[in-house]
Write a structure and sequence with these properties.
With 432 residues, this protein is of the alpha+beta class. 37% of the residues lie in helices and 24% in strands. Helix 8 links the parallel strand 10 and strand 11. The two termini are 39 Å apart.
């Protein structure tokens, strides 16, 4: 049974009220993001890109569709073809990509690689399509077209622990901004899998060590729920109503480098393969001296942007924190004679890259303010002759009830400085 609070926060309801997105039968399961929705979408991407720069990620773009041979090579055709959109073009069969992995493998392997390039962290915000059953579609939480904060890390076996630890730190940094708590579980080898059991055992052991180091005993095992190519760590977040959602995932993959014959030049004169051959443990996939296969870590932090937008809408109940808000500022003149000052202020704050709207309609002042409050603007600036003459604004703060009736007069230069700092600090509350 859906609670009254959950119904009030329903992202389809709020998405319509706040004009964030809509759906149309011309493209079932494919959301149309409106300007306000795109503002949130872009703020999320800006956040991730800022973290990418600090953490050594490289952003790439890859094609939206590939010849079916690529999906057969990756193994997705046998495991995932029913969930793909297929096309026939010039007598060739193609598939729209439901994930970025194979394209990134092609990208890594298109030229010679050196151990000096590892770990290589490739990020991609590409558009993905999955042929979800029409009965399974559900608002933004289950769609057919979406984008992810998708990344593949190519590294050596010795780098796995440090990379996974870095991803745990990444998780904390991102989820803390939204006030999410999270749980972690290890999903192990499924019944249908690729590769050797010994490789799976080693991969699972690496993830167990990383989990224990990060979480102690506060993690669980989900037996047999790993991907067909490797074990994974699934991360579940809890929203404001303590409902749980899986967004992030960390997957260890030893199989794709074999399937795609990915390799890099090592700095060793001899290779472990020669030692194993001498001991009678030869592996047909072993490479000659001076070459080795990378390990691939698949990871997403927020997962689908569309799904995350739905989760955030309900988590915040439409009351967006300032840095993420599509409606940060509303400027309202007391009388039409002050419209020029309103336009001037709008231009100033837009120059600060803030989301600023104005209301110069014929409605009464009280109605303009009330409409702005119902629309959940973080700040409403009311301006009269006194504010114009003193180069100031009369501020009403959504998160400070003491300002919502009379407001507080603040000089324009001062409020601009405070708002720039507030956006940069990414606080949950306005807190000027």
């Amino acid at each position: 049974m859906i609670s009254a609070e959950a119904e009030k926060r329903n992202h389809l309801k709020l998405g319509k009220e706040q004009e964030l997105f809509f759906f149309d039968e011309v493209a079932p399961g494919c959301p149309f993001l409106l300007p306000a929705g795109v503002r949130i979408f872009n703020a999320l991407q800006t956040l991730l890109r800022s973290e990418y720069r600090k953490r050594g990620y490289q952003e790439v773009q890859t094609p939206n569709m590939y010849d079916v041979s690529l999906w057969k090579q990756s193994g997705h055709w046998n495991h995932y073809s029913d969930d793909m959109f297929k096309l026939n073009v010039e007598k060739r069969e193609w598939g729209l990509k439901p994930m970025n992995c194979p394209g990134h493998f092609i990208l890594f392997g298109h030229r010679e690689r050196s151990y000096r390039e590892l770990p290589m962290r490739i990020a991609d915000f590409g558009v993905l399509h999955r042929n979800e059953a029409s009965g399974a579609l559900s608002g933004l939480t289950r769609v057919r077209k979406f984008q992810q904060d998708d990344t593949h890390i190519f590294c050596t076996s010795d780098q796995i622990m440090s990379e996974v630890e870095g991803l745990f730190d990444f998780l904390q940094s991102i989820y803390g901004l939204f006030g999410f708590s999270f749980k972690l579980k290890l999903s192990t080898r499924p019944e249908k899998y690729m590769g050797q059991i010994s490789t799976w055992d080693f991969a699972e052991e690496q993830l167990k060590k990383a989990l224990t180091k990060f979480m102690g005993d506060n993690w669980s095992i989900n037996e047999g729920d790993g991907a067909f190519y490797g074990p994974k760590i699934d991360i579940t977040i809890a929203d404001a109503l303590q409902r749980e959602f899986q967004c992030a995932t960390i997957q260890l993959d030893y199989q794709a480098p074999i399937n795609f014959k990915l390799e890099y030049m090592t700095n060793e004169k001899t290779h472990a393969a020669e030692e194993k051959k001498a001991e009678g443990e030869a592996n047909p996939d072993e490479l000659p001296a001076g070459r080795a296969r990378p390990v691939v870590i698949h990871r997403a932090i927020i997962g689908s942007f569309e799904r995350f937008l739905g989760i955030l809408t309900e988590h915040f109940g439409g009351k967006w924190p300032f840095w993420l808000s599509p409606r940060q500022i509303l400027i309202v003149p007391i009388v039409p004679a002050l419209n020029d000052y309103v336009y001037e202020l709008q231009k100033l704050f837009q120059g600060d890259k803030l989301n600023v709207d104005i209301d110069v309609s014929g409605n009464t002042l009280q109605k303009k303010i009330r409409t702005g409050q119902l629309s959940q603007y973080n700040f409403i600036f009311v301006v009269g002759a006194q504010e114009r003459d003193s180069r100031s604004v009369n501020l009403r703060d959504r998160d400070d009830p003491t300002t919502q009736n009379k407001g507080v007069m603040i000089p324009v230069d001062e409020i601009r400085q405070k708002l720039r700092a507030l956006r940069k600090e990414r606080r949950l509350k306005n807190a000027l």
